[in-house]
Amino acid sequence: MSAFELQSLDECLDKYLPPEELKEVKRILYGVEQDNSLELPAGAKAIAEEHDFEIKGYRFTARPEQLRKPRLVRVGAIQNSIALPTTAPIEQQREGIWNKVKNMIRAAAEAGCNIVCTQEAWTMPFAFCTREKYPWCEFAEEAETGPTTKMLAELAKAYNMVIIHSILERDVPHGDTIWNTAVVISNSGRYVGKHRKNHIPRVGDFNESTYYMEGNTGHPVFETEFGKIAINICYGRHHPQNWMMFGLNGAEIVFNPSATIGRLSEPLWGVEARNAAIANSYFTVPINRVGTEQFANEFSSGDGSKAHHDFGPFYGSTYVAAPDGSRTPSLSRCKDGLLVTELDLNLCRQVKDFWGFRMTQRLPLYAESLQKASSLDFKPQVIKDN
Ligand SMILES: NC(=O)NCCC(=O)O
């Protein structure tokens, strides 16, 4: 079997494990005691069927409290392939993807989603492997006033939904600088703010440092009508301190719009965002694109292998992890999909009270050690046996 005939690990478990074992395996693997699937409205399912994308629903509950009402929020995470060949005119490529994703946002609205997030650089092929500036920089647009933000602002208002979308940003006032940026649009349709990717990969064919620099927007948390949200863009997933800073700023849900391939990161995928949810007592939503994108000109990986035209398949597998360490199954590894998850944000504080990870965090100790570790005359604290 080739890597991409396997649609999803979950389907595999469901297909081959007897029901009793399956229940125990899911409890151990996903931290879920009972079936936590969420029934979705027929209207949402009909849109998914008509436009050929997967739609799945799950819920995370919290214990009832006496002084606080449940804080239920529905989150929609969208994974998709590109719509047209990478050689098609830029505007047509972008519109093709817009049209796909608009249907998915409509389904999210039907499913009652309050917040929706796209994958990384969602309006374009992930062309940074090529190291070519032309024509890919033409996909870059202004975060606040660009055509994609404008288009989504209308949907955000119409559907009363916060929309987070991750784009290639062109910072016109600062000399047309290019950034990798997530934009937050309020459910009123207003632009709330943006966050620029903090950690830029220099691994495999992820030649993103050719296009943009490390972000300069810190670790903002956006306080919306539906909770305090933040975005840790793709490769920031590998940096526990990046996740931690969003937690220190009070995030309750951290989205992780990504573009990554199986050969490189699939074994890490289920671990990192889930661990971040546990360590920081918040929900995490890692989202990855699907499909294989072919480029006209060959590019090489600088590892002695033959030059090639594609990056390798992106493996989707979008999921949601909760602060208590439980998680949803993943969306497909190959197909466009919308994952709808209902969260009770009260779970964040309940888990903080129970585990005390925040209380026991020892920030001053680490601040002091980090200060030393980042000084020029740093000497690692090693005690030798001699
Ligand atoms: N887009 C991006 O940062 N990808 C890097 C590879 C990875 O983090 O898995």
* Top-tier CATH class: Alpha Beta
Helix content: 25-40%
Continuous helix count: 9
Domains, number: 1
Give the radius of gyration: 21 Å
Pathway: Amino-acid biosynthesis; beta-alanine biosynthesis
Domain CN hydrolase: 73-345
Protein name: Beta-ureidopropionase
Pfam families: CN_hydrolase
Provide a brief overview of the structure.
Residues 73-345 form the CN hydrolase domain. Helices cover 29% and strands 22% of the residues.
Q: How does this model look, in words?
A:
The protein has helices at residues 9-16, 19-30, 42-50, 90-110, 147-159, 240-248, 262-280, 346-355, 363-373, and strands at 54-60, 72-79, 115-117, 162-171, 177-185, 191-196, 222-224, 227-231, 253-258, 283-288, 290-291, 294-299, 308-310, 314-315, 337-344. It is α/β, with parallel strands linked by helices. The chain has a single domain (36-373), classed as 4-Layer Sandwich (Nitrilase/N-carbamoyl-D-aminoacid amidohydrolase). The strands form four sheets. A seven-stranded mixed sheet has the order 1-15-2-3-4-5-6. The protein has a four-stranded mixed sheet with strand order 7-8-9-10, covered by helices on one side. The model has no long low-confidence stretch (mean pLDDT 97). Bound molecules: N-(aminocarbonyl)-beta-alanine. N-(aminocarbonyl)-beta-alanine binds next to helix 7.
